[in-house]
Specification:
Layout: E1 2-7, H1 14-27, E2 29-35, H2 46-56, E3 63-68, H3 72-78, E4 83-88, H4 91-107, E5 112-117, H5 127-135, H6 146-158
Parallel strand pairs: 1-2, 1-4, 2-3, 4-5
This protein binds adenosine-5'-diphosphate.
Length: 160
């Protein structure tokens, strides 16, 4: 089975990576789809995010990395994915995630959304927290893949 894992991934964290790894063992194939959201101004360009994910998942079989804009269900159809994978960290994620899942099902009932609960030790992680820590020179090596830690250092040094 092929699962689509859509998100902003600005940047990819070890929590995201854990979800990709578990998705791979459960479903065999995971398409990580980076959203080009015109409403958000990301810290990392689309190309940087695609490169970070490609490098961080190079040890995994069955992962492909792509980008999309527009509707997630259209992206799932384009990539021949049977389900949409999302992560749940806490109750705070639940309401928003449920809203998206219902919306996607109302648009196309063909695609089920499957939620995986986050690994407990990564449940505190979010891309924005990681950026906040890195901005003030904090250590992020236990939060993000090595390639992302390097990019964060470069990004915030050049922003000084
Ligand atoms: P979006 O802007 O679509 O929420 P994110 O990149 O923030 O994109 O998240 C993509 C998906 O990964 C979401 O389902 C989110 O709940 C999940 N996620 C975010 N952080 C973690 C984490 N630390 N562990 C596991 N899943 C996570």
């Amino acid at each position: 089975m092929r699962a689509l894992y859509p998100g902003s991934f600005d940047p990819l964290t070890l929590g995201h990576l854990d979800l990709i790894e578990r998705g791979c063992s459960l479903f065999g194939e995971v398409v990580v789809a980076v959203l080009q959201n015109p409403g958000k101004s990301p810290a990392f360009s689309l190309d940087q995010r695609l490169e970070q994910i490609t490098q961080a998942t190079s040890h995994l079989h069955g992962v492909t990395v792509t980008n999309f804009n527009g509707l997630t269900v259209n992206c799932a159809r384009e990539h021949d994915a049977q389900l949409i994978l999302r992560g749940l960290r806490a109750m705070s994620d639940f309401e928003y995630e449920l809203q998206i899942a219902h919306t996607n099902r109302s648009l196309d009932a063909e695609f089920e959304t499957i939620f995986l609960s986050t690994a407990a030790h990564y449940s505190f992680l979010s891309s924005s927290v990681v950026k906040e820590v890195a901005r003030f020179g904090g250590r992020v090596e236990h939060m993000v893949p090595a390639v992302v830690a390097e990019d964060l250092k470069r990004f915030f040094n050049s922003a000084l």
